[in-house]
Structures are given as structure tokens and as C-alpha cells.
Amino acid sequence: MPSTNRRVRLLTLAIVALLLAALLWMLLGALRSAVALWHELSDLPTWLSVSLGLLVAAVAGGGIWLGWRVLHPRARKQKPVVAPTRPEIDERIARLEQQRADTSQLEAELRELDKRRHEGDVYVAVFGEISAGKSSVIRALAPGAQAQVDVLGGTTRAVEHYRSTLKNGREVVLSDVPGTREADAAAREALARDEALRAHLVLYICAGDLTREQDAELRWLDGFGKPLILALNKIDQLGEHDASALDSALRTRYCDVVDAQVLVSAGGSEQVEKVHADGSKESHSRARPVQIDALLAAITRLSARGAEALEPARETAVLGALSQRAGELETSTRATQAQTLITSYTRRAIVGAMAAVAPGSDLVIQGTLATALIRELARTYDVAIREIDIDAFLKQASLSLRASTAIVLAIAGNAMKAFPGLGTLGGGVVHAIAYGLIFDSLGRAVATTLAEQQQFDQVHASATLKKLLAQTSGERMREIAALALRAHQEYDLK
Ligand SMILES: Nc1nc2c(ncn2[C@@H]2O[C@H](COP(=O)(O)OP(=O)(O)O)[C@@H](O)[C@H]2O)c(=O)[nH]1
Ligand SMILES: [Mg+2]
């Protein structure tokens, strides 16, 4: 007797063969129509056949072009950043403060925003890879200026500010984010990005073609709508021909992104060796010639409108970044609040189980307690939740729990063996730990759903609950065991 498997395969083969035959038939039909059309066209007057031919070519060309555009979407210009208003940010920070979140960094950023607005200076952030020549550019633009070190936003890493007067008399503050060690590259980059957001004008220094990351960075900076200058440094190293080729390649790529592109040679210094007549050698450092006139002109032109006119784009950038950071703080604050709730209810569930005169052999969720936990979690996450949905969810959870009672009890039993001290507490403790595991899992499952979906999705919560009940990582079980031990001690004292 042929197996069902074989029959299914034979049937599939027959269907595939039929489909292929149909496809071949259609292709032949299309070919025949095309040949017939060709004959008919050649009978027509020339002007008509040429027009029809052109029409067919245009339709075909259009189709190919459409396909190309769908497969190769053009790199779009960065969308402008949408920032919240100042009162919105103030309100969110006040709310976070009420929830005892650490808002000191956000407040420091707001203070810095206000401080720079009141000062009225034009801030120019000098941005670029390590060794691109940022510090050299600053030395060339502001010879002799002393660094003022600012510690911003509570970070211990510093941003250096150099005050300088341009040739047109405009006073600017140039900012540099120093750092040379690979180890702190990520922190330095984050600080440099924040400083670019706080500036009125951004000067992007590169010393060669841009990498994919630098390209993304430049486009990201453009999204804030502030004047952006791309300066290709170290052109003395490139030679005239290569410098001009790279310059025009960058111009083609970034004409929509930057407001000015200049070639510079910031100088720096080099070691030169002098050979004396007696053959002895002497080495000394020599300053390279500086070429920054085009850069000076670009900064002068783009800062001509003054700090006040450039302020709105700066404020948008800072408020946008603040909004994102406030969002991260809101998320972590809620997670902490939810965890505190879950721990407190898990403890209550454990105490309840220990106090029960005769724990049942089935594990049924303690309904009142579970309802209260879910309601409090919903309040934490600002999600409206209906009583009827909580009831339905708990009913479903109890049913699937009943089916896995043996597993949960086995896990609790293993925890007892693994954590010294629990074993001596007696039989009821296994149930107490099982309840602890159930409440901890229930709370985490509901909190995850609320956090990820901003709504109470029962199906998602049930699936997460099942996963968490089976997942008994050492750390979680240790916490639950510790709660059980403490609850037992307190319960015994009564
Ligand atoms: N050849 C050449 N070297 C430069 C130029 N500008 C800077 N440098 C050198 O590049 C290296 C890094 O410069 P630096 O300003 O410290 O870069 P930063 O890390 O971006 O601040 C130093 O050795 C400089 O002397 C330039 O225009 N031409
Ligand atoms: Mg430097």
C-alpha cells in the first residue's frame, strides 16, 4: 500500500506539471499574438506603425523604470526633527521628578540651553573622527584662545570651549570634545553628538572620503536644520589633483546635505630632520602652513544672521534630544515601579500560601490578589483596563496552570533542594514557592505586555506567562526563595 506521504508527493508533482504546461501554453499564445501584431503593424502606414512602436517602447520603458525605482529607492533627505515644546518637556520632567526619577541630567541640559540663549554667542561645534584635525582647526581659527572646560549634564567628561573673534568682528565659541583612547570612543561620540545638538552651527571635519558611518552621521546632523559645513582637511597630504577629485565627489554627494564645503589645511606640526655638513642629524618640529581662509569665510557667512536667528533650530535639536532621553527615563522608571509592585505581590502570595491551613493539590491563582496586581500595573503603565478582561485572563491562566501544576510544583521542589535553608521549612513551603513563582511570572507577563504594546493583550500575556513559568533561571528562583525564607521567618514570629 502506498503511504499517504507518497500519495501527497505524487499529487504535488501532477499539480506542478499541470501548472508548467499552462504557463507554456500562455507563453506560446503571447508569442503568437506578438507575431500577428508585428504582421499587422507592417501592413499599416509607416507613421502609424512608428507611433504604435514608440507607444509600446514607452510603456515597456515606464515599466522597467518603475521596477528600478521600487527596487532601488533613492536615498531621501533626512526628515526634519519634530521636537516637543518647552512646556511639554518641563511637564514631563516634573512628572518624572514626582516619581523620584533622577532628572538631574535633563535639568542640567535645560539650564545649558537657557544659559547659551541668554549669552547670545554663536556656538560652533567642531565634529569629526579622532585625528581628523579638529583641535588643529580650532587652533588655526582661534590662535592663542584658552580652553574653558565645561562639565555638562552631570557627565565627568568635558567639552572644551574656545572663544574667538572672527575677522568680521563676530564672536564665536568653538567647541571641541577631546579624547584619543579607543576605550572611551563610545562615550566620546555620544558627548560629541550632544554637543553638536547644543550648537548653532556644526563644522564637520574629515580627512578623506567619508565612511558609511560618517555619511549617516552627516545626514543625521543635517536633520536638525542648522547650518552645516563640511571641511576636507589635510589637503596638503592629498596633492592638488586628488584633493580636487575628492572635493568634487563630495560636492556631488552632499550638495543637498551641507550648506558649505571647503578645503582646508589646518596645519598641525611635523618632525623634520636636518642633516649638518659633518653628517650629524638634528630633528625638530615645524609648523605646517595653514590654509583656512575658505573655512573662515564659510563660518562668517553662515553665522552672519547672529545667534538669535539661529536659536530656533538649536532649541529644536536640544528639545528633541531631551524628549528622547526623557522617554528612556520614563521607560526605566516605570519598569522599576512595576518590579517593586511585582515583588510586593509575590511576597503577599507567598505569605498567603504559608498561612493556608491546607494548601490544595491544585494551584489556583489567588484571584483577589492577582486582580489587584494587574490593576496597579495598568495604572503604572497608564493603560485603561476592564474588569471583565482581567477576569477572562485570570480564568484562562488558571486553566493552563492547572494543567501544569505538576511542573510548577516540581520546579518549586527543585528550588527547595538548591537553596539551603528552605528544605528545613516543611511541606507547605513547596506550595508557597510555587505561588511565588506564579505571581512573579504573572506580574512580569502582564508588565511586559503593557510596556511593549501599551494595551492589555491577553493572548500575548498568556503566552509570556507560560514561557516564564517554565523558565527558572537561577537568579529569579534565588529571589523567590529569599522572599519565601523571609516570609517564613516573619510568619513564624507571629
Ligand atoms: N598633514 C597634515 N596634518 C594635519 C593637518 N591638520 C592636522 N594634522 C595632524 O593630524 C593629527 C591629528 O590632529 P588633531 O588636531 O589632534 O586631530 P583631532 O583628534 O581631530 O583633534 C596631528 O598629528 C596633526 O598634526 C593638516 O592640515 N595636514
Ligand atoms: Mg583633538
UniProtKB/TrEMBL annotation:
Keywords: Coiled coil, Membrane, Transmembrane, Transmembrane helix. Residues 89-116 form a coiled coil. Pfam families: MMR_HSR1. One of its GO terms (molecular function) is GTP binding. The chain crosses the membrane at residues 46-68. InterPro entries: GTP-bd, P-loop_NTPase. GO terms for biological process: tRNA methylation; tRNA wobble uridine modification. Residues 124-234 form the G domain. The keyword DNA repair does not apply. The keyword Iron does not apply. GO terms for cellular component: cytoplasm. This is GTP-binding protein HSR1. It comes from Pseudolysobacter antarcticus.
